[in-house]
Amino acid sequence: MILFEDNFEHVSYHLFDQMTKVIVVLRHAQSAGKQSGQRDYDRALTPQGQATAKALGQKLKQQNYNFQLILSSSSTRTRQTVKLINETLQLPIEKILFKPELYEAMMVNWLDHIYELPDDINHVLLVGHNPWLSILASTFAGRIQDLGPSELIGFEFKSETWREIGDRGQEIMNIK
Hints:
Layout: H1 11-16, E1 20-27, H2 47-62, E2 69-73, H3 76-89, E3 96-99, H4 107-115, E4 123-128, H5 132-141, E5 152-158, E6 170-175
Parallel strand pairs: 1-4, 2-3, 2-4
Antiparallel strand pairs: 1-5, 5-6
Helix pairs in contact: 2-3
């Protein structure tokens, strides 16, 4: 491969992208408190949460984060968060997977889904709930991460396959 590049800052991206996996872990946007008789699964975003999710989508687009797949819990608040972010990102609907089993999923369940991702996918956004999403992020970071609503942290793994990513990634972004 021959690269003609005036700015060599991005050369490693061109050369190693196929050997790199990127996981961005996002906690859903701010949601309303549980109403009497309402299932936790059905809680919706607050107006503040909706605005924050839209703004986050714009920020991700401005920073050129091009996800190839979004893997999310199927709860109401995670679906709303993904929908609002994707208004800006414009990922095709077939690249957004809502999984009921990721609602209240433990870290091991998230890892199982990550390991099963197709290896031609290199950049994935995970959207879910605490405490397990923060525990997953803490494992990847090697230090405690407590994600608040709409907070995310991204990691890069030097691996050609999802099964081989290991448990520590290089932190590449952190939006609080």
